[in-house]
Amino acid sequence: MESWRTPNTYLTAGAGGGPPPQLPRDPGQPRGLVADLRHQEGTHRSLCPKPGVFEIVDVPEMVFLMVDGHGDPNTSVARREAVEALYAASYAVPAVGKKTLGRVHTVAPLEGLWSAEDLDVFRTRDESAWDWTLMIAQPDWTTLAIVDDALAVAQKKKQLPALGLVRFERYTEGRSAQILHIGSYDDEGPPLQRLHGEFLPVDGLAPVGRHHEIYLSDARKTEPAKLRTILRQPVTAVT
After folding, report:
1. pTM for the full model?
2. Domain of 166: which CATH number?
3. Looking at the 3D structure of the chain, how many domains does it have?
4. Which long-range CB contacts under 8 A does 42-46 form with residues at least 24 apart?
5. Which residue range(s) make up the domain with 89?
6. Residue 18 lies in a domain
7. CB 105 within 8 A of CB 36
């Protein structure tokens, strides 16, 4: 199964349809310098929240590579180009980090921020009305200079049209409600309806900021019913 959330062209080109090899660890480098973003930063980065159970987490400031867009992600050429550019740049960052700082890391999962003038379109899945920001988290030691060098490396390897749209930005969500959804992306409506119609009102909370999704599964290798996605919503107390 291929999804717009799949790295597709960048990761599969020239690799027999499979993902690229992991960046090797220098044998002389201490293991403590190999950061895995999937497990850092405490609870908000956990890959194992309980399925179907809402929880409140405090999300600290993190750094990301981001690309913005609008419209149905399943049919948008801009979305596909954004995913390709983000993965190209994110796989170049460890190489630059290793060369300049002696540090490497595992590339983090793809994430998405979603918004719309009418929030009901998320429950009805009217994807043509969505504004989106696709992004991949970077280690906190990443600098603008490292990103600029990584973009240059990526552009030299493969000229991707959206590389010029990739930006490096700090993003803070703070207090947030989240749930681990297991199933098809098209079946996210019911848990989102529970979140906004039940969980938040009962706990005296209101949504603020953009809806956030973290795609933990490789859609090329995972059945739709087994896809794992963290659904997150920044919140504030109702006064």
Report:
1. 0.81
2. 3.20.80.10
3. 1
4. 44/173, 44/176, 44/178
5. 36-237
6. no
7. yes
